[in-house]
Amino acid sequence: MIETAVVGANALTRRWVATIESGGSSAVSGAGVWPLLAYLAPAADGDGREELTAAVGIPASDAAAGAAAVVELLRTAPGLRAAIGAWVSPDLKLHTEWRASLPPGAVGVAAEQAVLDAWVREQSDGLLDRMPVRVDPETLLVLASALVARTRWTQPFTDGMLGAAEGPWAGQRLAGLRRTTTDCDRLAVYETPAGPVTVLTVEGDNGIDVDLAIGLPDAPAAAVLTAAVDAPVAEPSRRGSQFGEGDTAPGVTVGFGSGHDETPRLLAALPRFTVTSSHDLLAHADVFGLRTVSDLRAQRLPGVSDFPLGVGAAAQDLTASFTADGFEAAVVTAFALRAGSAPPSKRPLQVRVLLDRPFAFVARHRPSGLVLVAGWVAQGEQQSGPGPGFAG
């Protein structure tokens, strides 16, 4: 079941990143939304059930089990933490079967906004501080998920200052990160309709990897992100060990280093970054299968309760940070349901990848392939003080 659920969750992420525009930094977590949709799918009827089933990518009859499998993975895998919460108005009677489909202890009585915000702070380890939906007297049910992902790099980066010679970051002093490794095949290039995309995989020590991806200067963010999401199941046109002197790719140059050791090396340089995002999921209701069940004019979720319900709000807040030592991200997603009416050389070959203009990132649980967070870095962190310089 978990393999099928991961495919469905990653497909949702792929559709979602296709909506991201290049203008600003943004990040999304399909893994944070997917379980909530999967819990709702078997409870919906008519067009709403069909749309939610298409969004989760597995039959509605299997969706709750798939949600439970994903939540268990996110709850127990090293470096990951997850929780599901549901708060119900005393006036709303839930169907026993739907209540039982949620994790044990997940359902509580409807609470004030401050209580829900405190749950977010607790479940996100303080990285986020509020529930992304606002409750009011018309809110009958809040269904939420929290996800935290943390890893430390198997080989840390060195902090420094990064400067760009050209492009949108030209002239800026960015808080840079640099690392050299002998594993050149951590780099791969993929051919896409938007041109070649270079993907650098940074390995965490607990089964969480972060892929960094850069395309041609005019490649849309959505195209680069899609390539990064698809990288594990796509065949690269070249890997880092296949580059020769003078070869190039987006962000990549190849030459010779110094010293007597002839082992090829991969040098990576990029800015530190933190991306924070808030998303109104109903703005892209068709991506999530929420078009019909967010129509409050009709009963659309009879499997939850006999009382007419609809999704009145759906939102996600997210923060993700990439530093010299590792990566961490926190995601909270919530739905508010309301009443409805129904070659050899004497010098070592050096493959150099420089991310000195906007690029994408994808954090992934390596054993299962589940995409945890995907985003676009439109601006790196600024250097706040003097430091060693490199790259430019």
Automatic annotation (TrEMBL):
Domain Serpin, first and last residues per copy: 269-378
GO cellular component terms attached to this protein's record: extracellular space
Disordered: region residues: 236-257
Gene Ontology molecular function terms on file: serine-type endopeptidase inhibitor activity
Recorded coiled-coil stretches: none
InterPro entries for this protein: Serpin_dom, Serpin_fam, Serpin_sf, Serpin_sf_1, Serpin_sf_2
Protein name: Serpin domain-containing protein
Organism name: Catellatospora coxensis
